[in-house]
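the two lines:
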Amino acid sequence: MTSLLSIRNVTAGYGYGPDIVHDFSLSLNESEVKCIIGPNGAGKSTLLKAVAGILKPRSGDIFFEGKNLSGKEAYQIMRLGICFLPQERAIFPNLTVAENLRMCAYSIKDKALAASRIKAAIGMFPVLGQRLKQIAGTMSGGQQQQLVYARAFTIKPKIILIDEPSLGLAPSLVEQTFSHIKQIASSGIAVLLVEQNAIKGLQTSGYGVVMDLGKLVFEKPANEVLQDQSLRDLYLGKALKK
Amino acid sequence: MEILQVIILGLCLGFVYALMVSGLTLIFGVMRIVNLAHPILIISGAFVSYWLFILFGLDPILSVPAAALTVALLGVLLYKLIFEKNAAQQTYSEMTVLLTFGTAMVIDGLLAFLFHNTQRTASPAYATDAIFIGDIFIPLAQLYSGMVSLGIIVVLALFLKYSEFGIAIRATSQNRTSAELVGVNVKFVCLISFAIGCALAGSAGSLVSFVFSFFPSRHWEWIAILMSLVVLGGMGSLTGAVIGALVLSVVSSLVGAFYSPAWSTMVFFLALFLILIIRPRGLFGIRTD
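prediction for all of em together
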């Protein structure tokens, strides 16, 4: 059986700069949750950008449901069913909450379906329903996070790519964010997560993927990575030694 | 009473300025193109209406759609030829200043070659007429052109506020990548926004053709005026540009009436300098970072 997403020998980098991701391969099956961890500059975010189509890989191929994604624009990849939540600006801060939700559903052609999905998302995050007319950027951090994750339930993608969901968030928001991610995973959407907070990331995931200097170091079930002391010292760093 | 008179005339002209600047601000907001060719596109629209009036006696207000369409098509051509391929360049915004400046010179030269730099005005029957409300008289040309401009601006605002595509345009102007990531075809949105911006220039030209006398090289003066309106309102903010246009037009009329007409154009430039010193991001500017 071919996997849902298959990244094959991808090399990528920015502009005229050096390769950030080297000959990287990884696959993701339906409903699977994998967390990519590794030091800063390992190329984790770059890899997600390449999958989402924001960055064109220099070589290698990415297959989704057997289709080669090379040459496709980011919006086309998104419409196929790969949703990317970047580190920042996953919402439109100067649009109202209602307008943000409409934009979340922009790719759904059937407008009745779009409306019912938006309604369902509001059902899951009632606070958004109370603030439909508010400018999204003026909401609290936690409310903005809910708006970000409402997108997953509005468009119901096959895969969601999440880049550093906990970056810059207050500890209480980190908990909230990971509960949203678990919610998404349990609804059957495959998740490819990049996370600095390795423990949190691995606890949420089925598999841990360690990446360093643009290369795959290894891939193991997440609980094995969490329990292996030598791996913890090597790749999970200080976060675990408190 | 005289002051009220001047304010009303200033407002009528203000709506025309607002329409002139709306396309410029839309194009900057969505694509970060500083379109110095916008005023010459307005003049192109004025020529379309002028010739339709001279040759077929068509009222310039009725030829608004024709002028809008002609200039929009011209805009699409320009966009495909010179902007689309360069959009990924890092110095895109800076580059567009030169590209559009060059374009403005070419179109200016072409129009001057075809029609000469003589002053022209379309003169429909109402152009010399006026209505009186009490002591206040309003020339019909300015009233009509102001009201139609207002109508077009309202339609534009409703479109941007409520339609799905309008929201996509605003989303794109906030962040292209984010828009792409919710499935917006950003390249297509840019093309259509550019066409809409040019259509607005064309319709403004049509409405200007019987209010101002125009000739190809007049666009140099309008570049300066329109840029001061855009900067005053806050680059890329439509509300800001409209309010900026109304305020400056009224102030300029007041200065012209009570001080000296020689100073009325100066108001725009003084406002430009002042706003850059006091509040560089303009009245309604959104921080772009």
